[in-house]
Amino acid sequence: MSRLPFELLLALRYLRPKRTFVSIITLISIVGVALGVAVLIIVISVMSGFDHDLREKILGFNAHIQVFNSRRTMQNYAQVAGIIASNKNVLGVSPLVIGKVLVETQEETNKQARVDAPILRGVDPQAEGSVSVLPKSIVEGKFDLSGHGVVVGSEFARNLGLHVGDRLSIYSPHDIEQIRKNRGKENEEAILPEDYEVRGIFDVGYYEFDTLFIVTSLENAQDLYDLGDSVHDLEVMLKDPYRVTEVKWQLEQTLGNEFVAVTWMEQNSTILNALIVEKNVMFYLLFFIVLVAALCILSAQITFVVQKTREIGMLKALGATNLQISGVFLSQSAIIGVLGVLAGYGLGILALTYRNEFLHFMNYWTGFELFPASIYGFSKLPAIIDTRDIVLICGSSFVICILGGVLPAIRAGRLKPVEALRYE
Questions:
Q1: Is CB count within 10 Å lower at the N or C end of the chain?
Q2: Is the alpha carbon torsion for 380, 381, 385, 386 positive or negative?
């Protein structure tokens, strides 16, 4: 004899596949729950992956905090860097010169010169490794900024057809201003740009950074911007990047009103907040798929109660309580919920595991890039399977399935034996 409660045994018996309309509704309910759970798991995991990877790329290439002088360029940056480094939360400090420049490639026999306007970063090669992943992100050549050396992003190099050993002409804003002032004068002098050699190509894994930035030594950047021995700001790397608000307040108190500290969260607040909002909105919108499945369960259970009216009356006559009768139909909803949630979980995890292979397959067969790096900034579709998100999705979906069977279960439990057997 089975040790299962008779409510569960009856629920399993009623759910056996039969060629009836109710069985079709039950199957649709299970498929609906499975699709809702799978889609939720896929979308929320991808959104979490976007948020995580974006933060990693931002924190890897940019400093956690940038400190600059609000009135002028920073002349005594070595002294200020020493004060900042004395903070116990600071891991590294490096000077930075940053700004737009005009770049022109050399014209060759079968190759025309190309022009672009990237952002130039002038860094200290010895200190850059303490505040950035740039020195470790070289995919071609080496991180060599000695002399007139420069390293460029992989997408920037691809767009301009650059390789290690090629030479670039860099016009600084000062050069362009001089050209404009000398234009039309009788004794007009030609302003010749500085020539730089491409020593390395970096790939930090984020399309925007790989497209917009080129890097040279601090001395070269100071010469291009006519800064002398001053810099634009100091890059600060922290031991814990999520304590930036606290450290920012400490640094501003220590350095005085003349200096301003800007955190990575403030610099990227728009896109980070947008991702959080999108993730929450997608969760609520896609959860309606599960609600639709719950309505299918409600419909199926109402039909079950009508079909099993005679059996309910007989069980009541034999001594079954209202709670036991309600338990039969609630058990049916629970079984449908469990099957749907398990199937959705398996389908969602399977889709996440082979997400990039699926993208490559679709790109190959359709000829359309579903996930262009130029728009989203990533070469691969990121995803993070967060246990808390999975528990929330599966748990809430199961509860919704149970709630879908509550009203029919209550109706069945309140059915009186006399009314149920009146026409039998």
A1: N
A2: positive
Q: Which residue has the higher pLDDT, 92 or 424?
A: 92
**Side-chain-facing half-sphere of 346: CA atoms under 13 Å:** 6
Both tokens assigned to 197: 């050699």
Give tens-digit pLDDT for 230-240: 898 988 988 88
Query: Using one digit for the tens of pLDDT, what is the confidence trace for 268-303?
Result: 777 777 777 877 887 777 778 778 877 877 877 777
The amino acid at 70: S
CA atoms within 13 A on the CB side of 100: 5
Please list the residues that pair with 90 across neighbouring strands: 238
**Which string of DSSP letters, residue by residue, matches 57-74?**
HHHHHS-SEEEEESSS-B
CA 397 – CA 387 distance, rounded (Å): 15
Alpha-carbon gap, residue 140 to 339, rounded angstroms:
51
Helix (H, G, I), strand (E, B) or coil at 375: helix
Which residues, other chains included, contact 184 with Cβ-Cβ below 8 Å and sequence gap of 6+?
Answer: none
The model's confidence at residue 347, banded by pLDDT at 50, 70 and 90, is: very high
How far apart are the two ends of the chain, measured CA to CA in Å? Answer: 30
Q: Tell me: the pLDDT tens digits for 115-140?
A: 888 999 999 888 888 888 888 889 99
Measured torsion, CA atoms of residues 278, 281, 283, 288, in degrees rounded to the nearest 10: -140
**Cα 415 versus chain centre, distance:** 53
Degrees, nearest 5: CA angle 52-352-390 = 70
* 8 A C-beta contact, residue 82 and residue 94: no
Question: Which secondary structure element, helix H or strand E, spans residue 120, and what is its range?
Answer: strand 119-123
| pLDDT band for position 151 (cuts 50, 70, 90) | very high
Contact 106, 169 (CB under 8 A): yes
Per-residue pLDDT band for 1 (boundaries 50, 70, 90) equals very low
- What phi and psi values does residue 256 have, to the nearest 5 degrees? 100, 175
Say how many residues make up the chain: 424
Nearest to 125 by CA among 156, 153, 94: 94
Cα–Cα dist 230/77, whole Å: 7
Rounded CA-CA distance 177/225 in Å is 11
Residue of 27, 26, 41, 36 whose CA lies nearest to 348: 41
